[in-house]
Automatic annotation (TrEMBL):
InterPro entries: ADH-like_C (IPR013149), ADH-like_N (IPR013154), ER (IPR020843), GroES-like_sf (IPR011032), Mba1 (IPR024621), NAD(P)-bd_dom_sf (IPR036291), SDH-like (IPR045306). CDD domains: sorbitol_DH. The lineage of its organism: Eukaryota, Fungi, Dikarya, Basidiomycota, Wallemiomycotina. Belongs to the zinc-containing alcohol dehydrogenase family. This is Sorbitol dehydrogenase. It comes from Wallemia mellicola. It comes from the Eukaryota. Keywords: Metal-binding, NAD, Oxidoreductase, Zinc. The keyword Isomerase does not apply. GO terms for biological process: protein insertion into mitochondrial inner membrane from matrix; sorbitol catabolic process.
Amino acid sequence: MSAPVNAATANKMHNPNFILRMPAEHGKTGVVSYEERPIPEIGPMDVLVEVKKTGVCGSDVHYWQHGAIGPFAVSLCPNGMCLGHESSGIVVKVGSDEKVKVKPGQRVAMEPGFGCGVCSDCKSGRYELCEFMTFAATPPFEGGTLCRYFKLPADFVHPIADSLTLEEGAMMEPLSVAVHAAAKIGQIKVNENVIVFGCGPVGLLLIATAKALGARRIIAVDINQERLTFAKRYANTESFQPPSKNENESQDEYMARTVKELHNTLGVESRGINGIDLVLEASGAQPCITMGLHFLKPAGRFVQVGMGRPDIQIPVGAMMSKEIQYRTSFRYGPGTYALAIDLVSQGKIDLKALHTHSFAYNDALSAFEATKAGKGKDGKSLIKAVIDGPEELQFGSSTRRLFLDEPDAESLRKIKAASERAAVAKGATGEAEVRVGLDEMNFGKLSPYVKPSGSILGLRASDLKPSMLFSRGFKPKEFFKWLQWNLYTSLQDYHHRMLLFQKGEWQTEKEGIPGLKWIERRKASNQWASTVALDKYTQLQKAITSGDLKTINKLAIHTLKDNSDSQAKTVKINREKKYDWKLLKINETPSVMSVRTTNVMPMLPESAEKRICQVVVKFNTEQTLGPDHQSQNIVDYVMFEKPLWMRNGDWKMRDKVYETPYFQ
């Protein structure tokens, strides 16, 4: 199956959603597409999470293939349904209520189902049974977590430790299904004997949970020998592959023979300490359910976890004579996520071994196809596929007074020592550059970042390594003081130009800020490094001021060619000139992504401490943009450059054109 036609543009959307729609013709596979959806508005007790990882569940695939699970039909969603519910991400916005404890920037596992909070089920602590449950990717709710931003109540996000990956965070959802079934419904006890039917993802997690909670013996049952082999390797389980049913053999005869084979091959007994205390059934298959009920010793417990056919039959007579407890398990409830996270954090459950395949966000359909097939394009068996979140959006910068933290004494010492070693190695007159990893430094809250593809204003991806380049003779302490001031003045200058532009006063010099005439005069000299963004900025100012609608329309649909990926960036212009911008909050300390230095062109009067020629800084802020005054969380990558031929040592901020943070 070919990818959705708009897959290539998915990462460019502000809030892309992976939407499923079912065709009118019954029996047809669903149609998926990437669609822009509004960024959710949060209430006082809500949080907004930027989704980073999403696991593919069998229920997602079932909706895609069949359009419904029981009464939950995609046809109940008039705008289509966003798929995905096994997710983790980073909190980007929190509600105003003081009871909200999570903070922006925290990594969280997302519990995707929440009740109304006021019904009898919710008030009794069984919100998983709420009649008005809102659950991601479950009709009639149209929202799912295969998107950029997802809103949920603050008490349904669960912080994860730094030692856990976001992939593990996403897998807390299926693990919670297993923990709920084994611990709460199954009431597993230490030293009990447990049988698990079905060695798919949920079955393996049931096995892992039973082991973590102290089971004496765990026997995995499956008809697939490859799955049984993996289960043994994963959790050191015993395994049992049921025999095939003979022709003309009655159901009772087949069950008696199978029970006898289990007893003979594994030493299981009908009663006592070697009997089976608990069966966890994850396949949903009629033979497995019947078999599991026959395997149990008297007073044993059976928990149905896998979703089977609606007409499953159970041997009530055999159950009654042994007082078998038959229970069902549905999703998870209070405390389950916390226990699941704790078991993984303590190292009692290994989730990494189950994550076998990864997919980019714009290749989500391949993840669904591979999950359905049970193997990836590499030919290897697939247990759990995880889809990355959309790539980070890159907007133009619009912010004011932002400062960097100064490095501490130990970091300065390391830089100085590294520079001296480089100088000795290269010789006093030669070029001397040394890489100093950011993870070795303590620049306040600076953090490394490697963009997986594309470029930042002409920087190749290879230039954005998580390292800093320092030249021989570099004086870091003086530079950081100097850089702080230049960041402030450059950003302030850019903001003032935008204000002048909004007032229609771009052509004059006002409030000490150069106008367009000054810019054009500067461009005529050899001291000005022109940019595509500046040219468009100038054309746009002229067109709006003169009311040239033809030029405005042309600029509104023109494309700007990035020098690395040549992907089109669309500029939208508001004809009423109602522009607004306001910095509301700094979400995290600005981070230096890349610092480049040079020792070339020694004939220029550049002092040693000013040999840095380019700095890329990441800003994460909440801003109000555009005429509708909507606030957004914006991640900016701002390049500051000091052209070598500018002898006065001035820095300038290189203009950026991404997805029009000003003109939308």
